[in-house]
Amino acid sequence: MNIFRLAGDVSHLVAILILLMKIWRSKSCAGISGKSQVLFALVFTTRYLDLFTVYISAYNTVMKVVFLALSYATVYLIYMRFRNSYDSENDTFRVEFLLVPVIGLSFLENYAFTPLEILWTFSIFLESVAIMPQLFMITKTGEAESITTHYLFFLGLYRALYIANWVWRYHTEGFYDQIAIVSGVVQTIFYCDFFYLYVTRGEEIARLVQSPVSRGKKGAFSRFVVSFCSSPRKREDEPADAGLGFTSVPATVQRRGRILSPFPVAVL
User: Fold this and answer.
1) C-alpha span between 143 and 260 (Å, rounded)
2) I need a labelling partner for 251 at 20 to 30 A (CA). Which of 2, 35, 72, 170 fits?
């Protein structure tokens, strides 16, 4: 194991612990996409089916158990313990748009046409897009708590460090895993703009969202994506752009402990 792999695992663990700490300490899962957490639980479940059949190392086994336990603990807190605070009205990303193509790719692109290999491939592909409901939710509401941005940062850092791990292994061991590398690069791309805005947040984020460009062409595209990917549920008295956050920028920017979401501009 190299330093990049270890640092990536630590970053991944820190991200999950930050999320759990946020939910437990605030007694609320507001702003957290339950759909993303269910997808991550599905990722770990399908990836670690070899937990009791293949032994690699004590570290590997312990980390598998920890990630499985923490992912299901997160789902439990969102949908059971603190379900009254779950924002289901804004967590409306249609996950079938992710699951259907991922399932198809898993059957078409794999290293062996066996159940375990197909499920492992499925988990790799699904992990690359599992964060989409969370990013979509932030886009729709137009804001995110600071602790949520820390969670996203460490989650993206974990994948970026894994790319460095693959580069290192290729040069030192000749190891090359096309499926994992391509999926990892795709996943990291989703975080690129977020990394920049995480470091330069504040006035930069406010300026991006309040700019004429963000309220014009890109804002319209964001509204289209939100409408297209949302579950078909909408109150008759709800304005067409409700929840996008464009009409409450000053209040959101000034709210202590929260930052305005960059995603209506940067991702969509």
Assistant:
1) 5
2) 35
**Residue 249 pLDDT > 90, yes or no?**
no
The structural domain count of the chain equals 1
Provide the β-strand partners of residue 143.
Answer: 260
Non-local CB neighbours of 122 within 8 Å, separated by 6+ positions: 46, 102, 103, 106
Mean per-residue pLDDT for 92-98?
A: 92
Residue identified by tokens 């319209």 is 220
Q: Count Cβ atoms below 10 Å from residue 65 Cβ, excluding itself.
A: 12
Query: Quick check: is 175 in a domain?
Result: yes
In a domain? residue 246: no
**Is 127 domain-assigned?**
yes
When mean pLDDT is compared across 18-27, 101-110, 144-153, 253-262, the lowest value belongs to 253-262
